[in-house]
């Protein structure tokens, strides 16, 4: 099974990296851009063949390592 | 309009960050994980109200700044 994980900063948490990207985009002439937020996207393969168990396992990984749950949200999607 | 951008390493490009995550997951007891690849996920708002123009603009941003097209792929999705 393949899983895709999105890790994004929670609302209200400052995103200096996103701000820097936004500033650079303005400098390049893309003036209509605002609210840039940068997160992480992780793809991984699992040996598990059960969809529900696979999702639970990846959510455990998010809490244990992939995401900092104090400031970040995670969303897990199991693909085939 | 809101846009979501996924930036991922091209196939064949080494991903030391993904490898490090994979190694750490094995160390935490998640033995069934393989092929971890880490990419970027960017969300942004646009003043443009035309879906097609918005997508084109974000693709231009990807080529100009967000992605290194030598080693990275990008995928743009325009949401409402």
Mind explaining what this structure looks like?
- Two copies of one chain form a homodimer.
- By secondary structure, the first copy, chain A, is an alpha+beta fold.
- Chain A has a single domain, classed as Phosphoribosylformylglycinamidine synthase subunit PurS (Mth169, Chain: A, 2-Layer Sandwich), CATH 3.30.1280.
- Helices cover 35% and strands 38% of the residues of chain A.
- Chain A has a three-stranded antiparallel sheet with strand order 2-1-3.
- The longest helix of chain A has 16 residues, at 51-66.
- The first copy, chain A, is elongated and about 50 Å long.
**Highest-level CATH class of chain A:** Alpha Beta
Count of helical regions of chain A: 2
Helix amount of chain A:
25-40%
Largest sheet of chain A: 3 strands, antiparallel
